[in-house]
Amino acid sequence: MDPRLTEAALRIADALERLAPPRPAALDLTAADAFVWQPERKHLHPVATVSRVAIGLLQGIDRQKTLLLDNTLRFAAGFPANNAMLWGARGMGKSSLVKAAHAEANARAAGSLVLIEIHREDIATLPDLLRGLRGQSRRILIFCDDLSFEREDADYKALKSVLDGGIEGRPENVLFYATSNRRHLMPRDMIENERSTAINPSEATEEKVSLSDRFGLWIGFHNCDQDTFFAMIEGYAKALALPITPEALRAEAVEWSVTRGGRSGRVAWQFIQDLAGRLGVRAG
To answer: φ and ψ at 44, to 5 degrees?
Structure first.
């Protein structure tokens, strides 16, 4: 080969190497037990302190707690477990339960489980995240809060493939938890529209609903009745040792819920935060 051609080829290769973006650094899971996925940098941002409520304070969702905690503890211990979808009423503790279950797993076995939050708008980059996590020694829980899809949104197809049907599959050391206000992650009119316009309506509907089927564990959260609401605020008040009588506590809680237009775990916690501030008690 002509030496001049060889030299020119080497110069071109060197130039292309300089122009190519640097390879992303390997994902580091040693800095913390919780991270936020930053897809633009292919980076996991460590979270030193997770904003959470202790699992014992979550009232009115005993069955949901048992289901998710058992699933999470099995996975953290190295046993098979299911992807989980927590769906239903707003403010009833779906995301709080996920974070509390993660904390409980690590309280029982320090460092046994990593929590990685991925934002809804970054779901399309989930395959990149999973590739970076494949082969890691730690057990990992990926969490997406308030997951749903709108009309013309094709990201759900990528999620379906990642959760179950893709050729790479989900890494054995990774589990996916999501919360949503919608049972099937999509608005009813989106599913109905597919049924009405498709050549084969049943197949079109099946395509949409099958995303939810990728979650082996479905946990429903329902609207809060008054007795459950009282159990929530009384549990919080007891944990914080608030100096108030049960009668006064309930009366103020009812007034608060009326002004907020409803009852939920979120409303109960907001009420307790307000009450603790007025009583001069620190609510950590």
So the answer is: -105, 115
Q: What share of the chain is helix, strand, coil (3-state, %, to 5)?
A: 50, 15, 35
What is the greatest pairwise CA distance in the chain?
Answer: 95
pLDDT digit string (tens) for 70-83? 999 999 999 999 99
Sign of CA pseudo-dihedral 108, 114, 118, 124: negative
Residue 170 backbone dihedrals phi, psi, to 5 degrees: -80, 130
Instruction: Give me 172's structure tokens.
Output: 């054995």
- Taking the mean position of all CA atoms in its chain, how far away is CA 113? 14
Reported pTM? 0.80
For 73, the token pair is: 């503890």
Q: Which of 222, 237, 241 is nearest to 269 (CA)?
A: 237
Indicate the pairing of strand 34-38 with strand 43-46. antiparallel
**One-letter amino acid of 120:** R
pLDDT at 198: 47
**CA dihedral in degrees (47, 49, 51, 52; nearest 10)?**
120
**Conformation bin of residue 262: beta by default, left when phi > 0, alpha when psi is -120 to 50:** left
43-46, strands of its sheet edge to edge: 43-46, 34-38, 113-117, 139-144, 174-180, 84-88, 217-221
